[in-house]
Every structure is written in structure tokens, then in C-alpha cells.
Design goal:
Blueprint: H1 3-22, E1 27-34, E2 38-48, E3 55-65, E4 77-81, E5 86-90, H2 98-111, E6 124-129, E7 134-139, E8 145-147, H3 155-158, E9 164-165, E10 168-171, E11 184-188, E12 195-196, E13 199-200, E14 203-207, E15 216-219, E16 227-228, E17 233-242, E18 256-264
Antiparallel strand pairs: 1-18, 2-17, 3-15, 3-16, 3-18, 4-5, 4-8, 6-7, 7-10, 8-9, 11-14, 11-17, 12-13
């Protein structure tokens, strides 16, 4: 092969390389919303991907409100004895910190007439011990007790065993379990190559919100992880959001919006 042919061949290879690596790589943006945390979105027309290309998908952002409850119908009872009568306060389902729980219980006791109205003081006070990560229940009236032996009690959330508390300072036996959710997992039905604890699971993203209960969650990954897509014709996508144990997240009707991007590898 003479020098001119070699030069032409080299130029052709360089040209093909430049075309391949500078061509526009199109992407598809999907914005999907629901007021549940397990929903299916159908596409009309369907999304048809090129059969000779490989595609992947990643989560761009997620928006919702921190509305998932730590107090549910399974743990919202607070039973106490006022020296004459047993009474039970039912805490409304919601997202609570220790101070908010204390306020809700004291409001219930005040409504029941079980407080020191003359001195504007309460007979039961609940607060956290920051050093031990446990909770403290202080009972200032010797006639009062707190009964944590009933079903659907707040005891586990506050770190207590099944016990009856009496007058004085009562420290919880266990660490506060105020955050029942350690991680939020976003699952997507059309992805592969994602594992949870060694098992194949369609998790496209996981996080925990950096805001408190009641505030808006705006989650944008600093580094988007793209995962391979398992189909060429996308007729529908199922998305579901769970906790670390696979239990469906309860947003209590708040809207959740996710933006996904499909792109060529």
C-alpha cells in the first residue's frame, strides 16, 4: 500500500472517530407524578428505542413532602393513670419529633383535666437525652403512672419496654426509635443490574431526606447513576417507593414527582 492510500485510510479512521464521539447523543426526559407511592404510567405513543443501541436510565430529581408518619395506628396510644381513672390518649397519625409528641400528650391531658392549672404545669413531661439517644419521662405527681403494657403503645418509638412507669425520672431502656425509616428506595420496573443486600432489585436510587417532617423534599443526585434498560419498547413504567425493608412509603396523599432521563450508553 503506497503512502497516499495509508494517509487516506488514516484520515478516514480519524473522521469516523470524530463523528462517533462528537455526534449529538439524544436523550428522553420523563416527568412522572402520583399521589401514591406505587403507580404505573402508560405512554402514548410508546417509546421505541433503537435496536442497535444500548440505553440506560437515571433519576434526575425527586420532589415531595416529608409527610410519611412515624406515628401510625399501630403505635399511637398513650395510657396513663391519674390516681383514680385509667385514661388513653390517641395521638393523630403524623410525623413527630419528641417535643411534638410531648406537646400532643400534654394537650390531651389538659383536655382531660389532668394537669396543674393553678401553676400552668404538667404532671408528665417527655424529653430526649441527647447524650444517650434515649428518652426521659418525668412524672411529677406521685398519683400518676404511665402504662406501656398495652397494644399499639408509643413505647417502642420512645425506647421503652413493656413496663409501667411511676413517679420520678424514668429513662428509656432502649435508644429512641423516632426515625423508623433509615433509607428511601426508588424502584423502577424497566432497569437491571441493581442489587439490595446481595439480591437483584430494581432500585434506581436511594436516599434519606435532609429536611425535617413537614418540609419539602427536593432530592437531586450529585452524581447520577445510570442503569441499563431491559426493554426496547416502553409501553409503561411502574415506579414504587419503599423503605429499607421494602415496605411501601405512606405519603398520606401528598404528590410525588420524579424526573428520569433515558440516554444512549
Amino acid at each position: 500500500m503506497d503512502l497516499s492510500l495509508k494517509l487516506t485510510d488514516s484520515i478516514d479512521k480519524i473522521y469516523k472517530f470524530l463523528v462517533e464521539n462528537t455526534k449529538q447523543r439524544g436523550s428522553i426526559s420523563l416527568i412522572l407524578s402520583s399521589n401514591t407511592t406505587d403507580w404505573v404510567t402508560s405512554f402514548n405513543p410508546i417509546i421505541e428505542l433503537n435496536n442497535i443501541e444500548d440505553y440506560e436510565i437515571g433519576l434526575i430529581d425527586l420532589e415531595t413532602y416529608y409527610s410519611f408518619p412515624n406515628v401510625t395506628l399501630d403505635n399511637n396510644k398513650f395510657k396513663y393513670f391519674n390516681g383514680a381513672t385509667n385514661k388513653t390518649i390517641t395521638i393523630p397519625v403524623g410525623s413527630y419529633e419528641i417535643t411534638a409528641l410531648n406537646a400532643a400528650i400534654q394537650l390531651g391531658m389538659q383536655t382531660n383535666g389532668d394537669w396543674d392549672s393553678a401553676n400552668n404545669a404538667y404532671y408528665i413531661n417527655i424529653y430526649p437525652n441527647i447524650s444517650t439517644l434515649k428518652s426521659v419521662i418525668e412524672i411529677t405527681n406521685p398519683s400518676y403512672t404511665v402504662n406501656f403494657t398495652i397494644n399499639n403503645s408509643l413505647r417502642e418509638l420512645l425506647g421503652f419496654n413493656s413496663v409501667i412507669l411511676t413517679n420520678g425520672v424514668n429513662n428509656s431502656q432502649n435508644i429512641i426509635n423516632i426515625l423508623t425509616i433509615n433509607s428511601i428506595l426508588v424502584n423502577c420496573s424497566i432497569i437491571a443490574s441493581s442489587y439490595l443486600n446481595g439480591n437483584l432489585n430494581p432500585i434506581i436510587y436511594s436516599f434519606f431526606p435532609n429536611v425535617g417532617p413537614g418540609y419539602k423534599i427536593i432530592e437531586r443526585p450529585q452524581r447520577i447513576v445510570y442503569l441499563p434498560i431491559t426493554t426496547r419498547n416502553i409501553m409503561q413504567i411502574r415506579l414504587w417507593v419503599t423503605d429499607q425493608n421494602g415496605k411501601s412509603l405512606d405519603l398520606r396523599g401528598e404528590t410525588i414527582t420524579l424526573r428520569l432521563e433515558i440516554k444512549k450508553k
